[in-house]
Amino acid sequence: MNGAEALIKALEAEGTKVIFGYPGGVLVSFYESLCDSNMIHILTRHEQAAAHMADGYARVSGKAGVCIGTSGPGATNLVTGVATAHMDSSPVIALTGQVSSNIIGDDAFQEIDSFGIFMPITKHNFQIRQADDLVDIMRKAHEIATTGRPGPVHVDMPSDILTGELSKAVKIPADINISSYKPTTVGHPLQIKKTLEAIMNSKKPLILAGGGVSIAHASEELLEFAELLNIPVCTTLMGKGCISEKHELSTGLTGMHGTHASNNLIDKCDLLIAVGCRFSDRVTGKVSEFAPNAKVIHMDIDPAEIGKNVSVDIPIVGDAKRILQDLIKQLKKQKRKHEELSTSENTLENSNSKFLDISEWSDEVKKLKEESEKELSVTAEEKQKTKETKETKEEEKIEKIEKIHPKVAIYDLMEAIYDIDPELENTYVTTDVGQNQMWMARYFKFKKDALITSGGLGTMGFGFPAALGVKFAKPKANVISISGDGGFLMNSQELATMAHYDIPVVAVIFNNRALGMVHQLQSVLNNRQSQIDLGETPDFIQLAHSYGVMAERVSNSKDLKETLKKAILMNKPYVIEVMIDSGYAVKVVAPGANLTKMIEPENKEPCSEKILFKDMVSKL
Amino acid sequence: MDKRHIITVLVLHKPSVLQRISGLFARRWFNISSITVGTTENPDIARMTIVVKGDDTHLEQVLKQLNKLVEVVKVKDLKHNNYVERELCIVKIHAPTESGKSQITQYANIFRGSIVDLSAETITVEITGDESKINAFLDLVRPLGIKEVARTGLTALMRGSKILKSNKK
C-alpha cells in the first residue's frame, strides 16, 4: 500500500464523507487513489473556496471539514480559508501536497514552505517525513482539530511520501495519546463555588455569550442557567442565536454594531458572566471603559483567552457545556434549600424573599430593551423608502432603478424564512463580511445558532462557498447565503461549482454598488470618501445565467419575500440580487470608543470621482 | 513594571519546534532577551530556557500561549531567584604583549575563567556564570580591546530537589 492509499484509509477511518479540493501535479497519486474510495470529492474552482466550504461543513456538522490543495499556489490559496477557520475555532483539516522530499529546499517548481506559512494560522501542523507516519498523523490531526478549543490542522505531504510504499500494514489507531496535549474540560470546583457566590451577591448580573457556547453545543444549558436566575443575555457576533433572540432574556448583539440595550447593560452591570468569548476589540470597544462597574467571570476552554484582553476576577477553564451543567446542578440544589427554608420558617420576610432578587435590574433591562426594539424595528418611513432613482448607465439610456432600504430587506428575509421554517429548525444562513453581515447581526433575530459568519478574520468571499459546505453537512436544510456585491465577487467563481453539482443553495446578493462598511468607517473617522464606489458591478443575473444558475433581481419588499420563499422551496441553485439603498448607514461605535457612544453616520450615497483609464494614463 | 523573567520549557525534541516557538514570540510581539536549547536526559525531550522582559500580565500571556502549543510538554516561570543560572561566554581579547597576556590571565583566574586559545596577537578566554558576572568580566577586559565575543544565552535549573517533570514515557 502506498502513502496515498493509506491517507484515504485514514480519512475514511475518521468518518470523512466529503473532501473539498483542487488537484495538482504532486497530488496525482492521491486523486488516483480517491477513485477507489466512497468519499465524495467536490472540485471547487479556487482553493480558498475549498477551505471555506470545509469550514462551513465543520461548523454545522460538528465534525472536521477536510480540504486539499496542491503544493505552491494550491497551498497559498488555501491560506485565507484556513486563517478564517483559525480565528473562528473551526475544525478544518487542510491537506497540502508538497514537492518530493529530495528536492525540498531547492526552490523546485511549485515549491513553497507551506509548513512555515501555515504554522501561525493553525492550531497545529505537520509535515510528513515518512509514509509509515501518515496514518498516525491523520489520527493526531483529527484529535487536535476537534477537541479542546477546536481549530484547523494542516498536514503537508511531499509527493514521494504519497507514492512511497509503507513498510508495514496500515493499522488505524483507535486511540491516540498526545502526551503534551491535554485540554482541560472540567471547571475547577473552587472557581465554580466562587462564581455562585458572586452571582448571589450581585444586583445587576449580565451574561455575555460567545461562539464557544455554540461550539460546545451548550445552548440548552445556557438558557437553563439564564432562566434559573432570570439573568439577561447579550451575545457576540459568533454567539448570535445561542439563545433565541426572541426570548425575553435576550438583549441582542453587543459591541461595535451592538444593540442599545446590550451595550448599555454591559456599561451598567455589576457582574459580567462571559461564556466562550474572547473579548475581541469589536466586542469591548475601549477596553479601559468596558464593563467599568462589573466583576468579570470568564469561562473558556482556552486558558490563554482568559485575562488576555480584559482582566478577569473569576476565571474558569473548561468546556462551556460542562461548566454550565455544574453551575446548574449547584444552583438547583441551592434553590431547593432556599425554598425549603422559606416555607418551613414561613415568616413574612422569608415568604417574600427570592432566590436571587434582581427585580429592579430586570425592570431596567426591560426599559432598555424597549428602546432597542424601537430603534431596531422598521419605521413607516423606512418601509416607504423604497425609492425610485434615476441612474445614467450609458449616455443615451436612462434607467430607473428601485432600491430597498437594507433594514426592510433584512426583515423581509426574516419573514420569508420564518414563514417557511417557523422554529428555524431546518435552516442555516451564512453571511459574507461587511454591511450585509452587520445588518443581519443587528436586525435578523435567530431562534437558534443558525448563523455561519466570519467573525474573527472578517473574510470577504466567505459566505457563499461556506453555504455550499453547509449544504453538504445538512443536505435537507434550507441554506441561504447573504453577501454584498463586493464580497460575492471575491468567490463568485463558485457559481460554477454550485451549477456543476446542482447544489441547492440560495445566494442572496445585496447590491449597493459600494464597499459599504469602509464607506461607513470613512464617514465616522474622517468623512472623506475614497475607493469605496464599486460602480459598474456586473449584471449578477447574467453572471448567474452564464453558469446555468437561475437568478432574479428584486428591488421592492414584496418581490423579495416572494422570490426568496420561491427559491427556498424550489430547492435549486438560485441567485437573488437585491437592489439596496446605498446611502443607508447602520449605527456604530467608532473603533476604540466606549460602547455606549453609538453614533449614526451621516446617511449619504457613496461617491468617489470616477476616473477612466484613458484619463489616468496622463498621470502615469 | 518590566521585569526579567526566566522561563524553562520542555518540548518534544522534533524538527521545527524552535521555529514554532520563536514564531509565537514574534507574532505576539513578545521580546526574547535570550533563548537556549539543548537535549535533556530524555532523548525525546529538549529543554529551552527563555529570558523575556515584561510585566506580570505579559508574562502570564507568554506562559499561556507557550502552553497552548501541542509540542510544549511543560512550561515554568522560575521565580524568586530560586534557581541556578549559567551562561557560557567565549571572548577573544587583543593581547599583543606578554604583560597584556599576563594581565588577562590574572583576570580570568579571578573570574574562574579558562584560557582556551592563544596566539601572538590574541588570547581567548572561556567564562561561565550568570549574566552579571560575564558582563563584569567583559567590562574589565574591554579597555584592552575585545576582538570578538560569543555568548550562549542563559540556561537555568531550579535549586534543590524540585524538577520539571515531562510526564512523557
TrEMBL record, chain B:
Keywords, sorted A to Z: Amino-acid biosynthesis, Branched-chain amino acid biosynthesis, Transferase
Single GO cellular component term: cytosol
Reaction catalyzed: 2 pyruvate + H(+) = (2S)-2-acetolactate + CO2
Listed InterPro entries: Acetalactate_synth_ssu, Acetolactate_synth/TF_NikR_C, Acetolactate_synth_ssu_C, ACT-like_dom_sf, ACT_dom, AHAS_ACT, AHAS_small-like_ACT
Associated pathway: Amino-acid biosynthesis; L-isoleucine biosynthesis; L-isoleucine from 2-oxobutanoate: step 1/4; Amino-acid biosynthesis; L-valine biosynthesis; L-valine from pyruvate: step 1/4
Domain of life: Archaea
PROSITE patterns xref list: ACT (PS51671)
Ranges where the ACT domain occurs: 6-80
MF terms (GO), sorted A to Z: acetolactate synthase activity; acetolactate synthase regulator activity
BP term (GO), one: L-valine biosynthetic process
One matching Pfam family: ACT_AHAS_ss
Assembly, per entry: Dimer of large and small chains.
Main function: Catalyzes the conversion of 2 pyruvate molecules into acetolactate in the first common step of the biosynthetic pathway of the branched-amino acids such as leucine, isoleucine, and valine.
Family: Belongs to the acetolactate synthase small subunit family.
Record's protein name: Acetolactate synthase small subunit
